[in-house]
Amino acid sequence: MDITWMDFVLLTLACFRLTRLLVDDTITDWLRAPFHHYIEETDQEGNVETYIEVKGKGFQAFVGELLSCHWCTGIWASGILLAGWVFIPYFDWVILMLGIAGASAILRVFLDK
Fold first, then answer.
1. Is residue 63 a contact partner of residue 35, using CB atoms and an 8 Å limit?
2. What is the per-residue pLDDT across 75-97, written as a single tens digit (0 to 9) for each?
3. Is 80 exceeded by the pLDDT of residue 113?
4. What residues does 42 pair with on adjacent strands?
5. What is the DSSP letter of 28?
6. Percent of the chain scored above 90 by pLDDT?
7. Residue 17: which of 81, 101, 94, 76 has the closest Cα?
8. Domain-by-domain residue ranges, the chain?
9. From residue 87, how far is each of 20, 79, 83, 100 by CA, in Å?
10. How far apart are the first and last CA of the chain?
């Protein structure tokens, strides 16, 4: 398997976006709901902090920990993307879509300042 620098950059951006989608985005709350319990606390200044508490034991706790950790989810996301790229026809379109969305998210951070 030959990977060009462009492939590497695209896969990196796609992995970044897929990881954020699984760990942070509101659209995937339904996916995390069976594994997370959210606790909100208000400090003395009125600021609300939200904490994640992982539910259950065994497999449920494992998935809950996985879905609350960018580092952990990133490893699995990169594996999924690489496997899809190698073994699934036209999966490169999914990687391209996620890569473009990842680049867009990064640009947004810099342009919104």
1. yes
2. 999 999 999 999 999 999 999 99
3. no
4. 48
5. G
6. 85
7. 101
8. 5-108
9. 24, 12, 6, 21
10. 40
Checking phi first, is residue 56 left (phi over 0); if not, alpha (psi -120 to 50) or beta?
Answer: left
Q: How far is CA 104 from CA 7, 23, 37, 57, 98, in A?
A: 17, 18, 30, 37, 10
Q: Cβ neighbours of residue 34 under 8 Å, at least 6 residues apart? A: 55, 60
Q: Structure pTM?
A: 0.87
Confidence of residue 56 (pLDDT cuts 50, 70, 90): very high
Q: Pick from 79, 90, 108, 107: which is nearest to 18 by CA?
A: 79
* Two tokens, residue 51: 């904490």
Interval 98-112 mean pLDDT? 93
**C-beta separation of 7 from 78 below 8 A:** no
